[in-house]
Amino acid sequence: MAKKKTKLKTTAFDSAEYLDSNEAISAYVEEALATEDPAFIAKALGTVARARGMGQIAKKAGLSRESLYKALSAEGNPEFGTVIRVMHALGLKLSASAR
Q1: Mean pLDDT in order along the chain per 10 residues (99 residues)
Q2: pTM value?
Q3: 22 three-class SS
Q4: What is the per-residue pLDDT for 88?
């Protein structure tokens, strides 16, 4: 008798589901900044904004929800001012240290 193959069901991984504390968000953004990849950093900020509520973050940052989604997508290229406003809205601050 042939064995019946079982189909596995999978779901897409969404890191926003795991960003449920200030510590997790801070560590996530720190790791994104460490990559020095502007597109990845913007996308990471978008993920955090989704975790916190995109509409709420957009309002705090003084942006429309749609423009925030676009700016913080993988294809987005937000202005530096936008990044700072979003970080402020998320309760994060940008800092620098010597290598």
Answers
A1: 80 93 95 93 95 96 95 90 95 86
A2: 0.84
A3: helix
A4: 95
Say if residues 88 and 59 touch (Cβ distance below 8 Å): no
Instruction: Please report the pLDDT score of residue 94 as a whole number.
Output: 87
> Between 38-52 and 54-61, two packed helices, what is the crossing angle to 10 degrees?
110
Q: What is the per-residue DSSP string for 26-75?
A: HHHHHHHHHHT-HHHHHHHHHHHHHHH-HHHHHHHHT--HHHHHHHTSTT
DSSP state, residue 90: T
- Tokens representing 79 are 């202005």
Tell me the domain boundaries of the chain.
Answer: 22-89
